[in-house]
Amino acid sequence: MEEANINNQKPVVSVITACLNSDQYIEDTIESVIKQTYPNIEYVIIDGGSTDNTLNIIKKYDNQIANWISEPDNGVYDAMNKGIVHSTGEIIYFLNAGDYLYDNEIIEKIVNEFLDESVLAVYGNVEVINYEKNKKSIRGCKVTYNNLLYRRVCHQALFVRRSLFDEMGLFSTSFKLSSDHEFIIKCIKKYSDNFLYLDKIIAKYRDDGMSCKMMEKTKIEDLKIISSNYNIFKFLLGSAVCGYVILKYKIPQVLNQ
């Protein structure tokens, strides 16, 4: 396939999309990337071996995608890791199938912040859409190492320099739902002053993702991550928060049965 047109005057942003049997959503995701005004985007799609119409849709945009592969993987973080390995950009961003960039200029706005070489990551907010309930909400705020005990940075709102993956390693595939959270905690623990928060909406994402559907398992993974990255007192605080969130999701489910 043709290589993307790269303008060597500006940093390359690798946008990585992981997908599997996503023919309902993948085209909107692709179009939100290729319509960006920023000229130096390397778009990489990692498909887990789709059996629906996903591959035909990807092939439709072949000349606007720098690289795509389709093969079985071991989950979304394995796919995201493949995306890192098969990309070359200085800045990396993950936009999975069903996620959409908020507007056509957002990558250009974000890249301007990376002109400051001390900035290792830029993050902002996401618009969460629940189509079943016809509801929208905005999530995101400035985070610190300590408040990551009970807050998260959505990966759809985060752009990072490749150097962070070179130093910290790829996503752990031992976690199925919270490996991006672990990566962010490790990075902010060491480089809190180098993470820049922008009070802007970066992307939209659907409320029916795996972490939303499997909140209990997500929080159990979070507990393992907290135990490895915080002292006992903070672990106890994090445990209390995880327990509260599990109850918050479970009680309405029980009442509605």
From TrEMBL:
CDD domains tied to this protein: GT_2_WfgS_like
Domain Glycosyltransferase 2-like: 14-140
Gene Ontology MF terms in the entry: hexosyltransferase activity
Swiss-Prot/TrEMBL keywords: Transferase
Pfam family, one: Glycos_transf_2
Protein name: Glycosyl transferase family 2
Organism annotation: Methanosalsum zhilinae (strain DSM 4017 / NBRC 107636 / OCM 62 / WeN5)
Record lineage: Archaea, Methanobacteriati, Methanobacteriota, Stenosarchaea group, Methanomicrobia
